[in-house]
Amino acid sequence: MTHNNIKDLSFLVYGLGLTGKSVVNFFEKKKIKNYKVWDDKNKNLYKNKRPHNLNKALKEANFIVLSPGISLKKLKKNNQLIKYKSKIITDIDLVFLSKNFFKSIIVTGTNGKSTTCKVLDHVLKKNKFKTILGGNIGTPLLNLNIRKNNFLIIEASSFQLAYSKFICPDYAILLNISNDHLDWHGNMKNYINSKFRLFSFQKKHHYALLNDNLKLNFKKRNFLGKLIIPKLSDYKKIKSKINNSYLKLKINDENMSYVFKLSKLLKISEKLFLKSLNSFSGLPHRYEIFLKKKNCIFINDSKATTFQATKYALKNTKNIFWIVGGLPKKKDKFDFKNLKKNIIKTYIIGKNTRFFRHQIQNKLKFIITKNLKNSIIQIIRDIKFFNKQYNTILLSPASASFDQFLNFEKRGNEFKKLSNFYAKKYI
Q1: Residue 69: which pLDDT band, with cuts at 50, 70 and 90?
Q2: Which residues of 30-47 are buried (b: 16+ CB within 10 A; e: fewer)?
Q3: Beta strands 63-66 and 131-135, pairing class
Q4: For residues 383 and 236, what is the distance between their CA atoms, to the nearest angstrom?
Q5: Which of 97, 173, 327, 391 has a CA-to-CA distance to 135 between 20 and 30 Å?
């Protein structure tokens, strides 16, 4: 299928959140009239396009464009959607179905997707590539104005990839895989399979970048794309030449090795690559050093929603007063090997304190503080008690935010607000 016959197809848009609405707007803009919409909760949105009989609409549609937040694993067994699983596609599929001669880079992985995408976008723009960035990073792809010869950089979640049928990136990047979203996928095998779908439809002239640990998994699937393994050692050879304090942090090394390798594939000289990095600013809520006061550094790592994500911060930081807690991810386990020496004390927040207490007790000093305000007040007291030469106050929750906050951004902003207030007052 190509952009020439997408108008001949029929669609059902299932789920009318931000992505679903972008699909409807895309259909209207492209004058694709043969579509219906469905939302289990909102029955009034696009009412004129809502079918009277959902099962009939599902049966008649060529494709079902599913909102990435909807998990078939969580639906009841008799749900009609499950019967038509083979028809499900995503908004990214629609971008490729209507492809208009753009180049594409898709980045996925459990951790580091957003930062990698942002750095890539910055480096390419600085080297006069016409880039456009979207996907899971914030802007729905179908809301973007994608033009001929653009470089489209997409952050793709496992939800978006799980049912993909037409995604075919010129450059596909799989950063890493660790336990996450198992409640959505059902098990680790399904989660891994969703990530590897990124490479399923690539041709021989396309590139597949992934780390050495995933190489065998890639090869046994007989994908056609050219396998590229970025070497961390290659990036470390040039790292000392980077004049950017954020990118010099060890926590960014693995992601940067992918960016460096891709810059070589795109024939960007090392000199221009290094020059372009100097003006890059880090993303908020990702190991964000936002406050320094006397002998204290405050770091907002609210985006860390699994222990594997938090592990990067714990590994690369010393004298940590660590705030952790929220809604833990299914089957997440805490391993403090080689990390204990970095952590002075732990402060457990959120409603599921039992889980975190079980993971931490007999391994670390801890106290249950329940919320961010109590944590910061207690940390300031403890800093004076432990009397270290320097101290790191770290919010890296290793869990989702939804028990106390709307999202990780709200959690991170609240931490920054409270830290600034109490640090100014008491430190």
Answers
A1: confident
A2: eebeebbbbbeeeeeebe
A3: unpaired
A4: 34
A5: 327
- C-alpha pair distances (Å), 412 with each of 19, 197, 388, 422: 24, 32, 25, 16
For position 3, what pLDDT does the model report? 46
pLDDT at residue 408 above 80? yes
Q: Are 288 and 300 in contact (CB under 8 A)?
A: yes
**Per-domain residue ranges of the chain:** 6-89, 93-277, 288-426
> CATH top-level class for 93-277?
alpha beta
Dig out the tokens for 41 from the structure.
């909760």
Through-space distance between the first and last CA atoms of the chain, rounded to whole angstroms: 63
Q: In the CATH hierarchy, which fold is given to the domain comprising 6-89?
A: Rossmann fold (3.40.50)
Taking alpha carbons only, the member of 426, 258, 393 closest to residue 313 is 393
CATH topology of domain 288-426: Protein-Tyrosine Phosphatase; Chain A (3.90.190)
Q: Judge contact between 277 and 248, C-beta under 8 A.
A: no
What are 56's two structure tokens?
């009939």
Strand partners of residue 228: 209
- Residue closest to 301 by CA, chosen among 371, 414, 395: 395
Question: Residue 101: which pLDDT band, with cuts at 50, 70 and 90?
Answer: confident
Helix (H) or strand (E) holding 393: strand 391-395
CB 406 within 8 A of CB 312: no
- Do the two domains 6-89 and 93-277 of this chain adopt the same fold? no
CA gap 310, 397 in Å, rounded: 7
Average pLDDT value for residue range 340-368: 97
Q: Does 78 have pLDDT greater than 60?
A: no
Residue 108 bridge partners (DSSP): 174
**338 φψ region: left (φ > 0), alpha (ψ -120 to 50), beta (else):** left
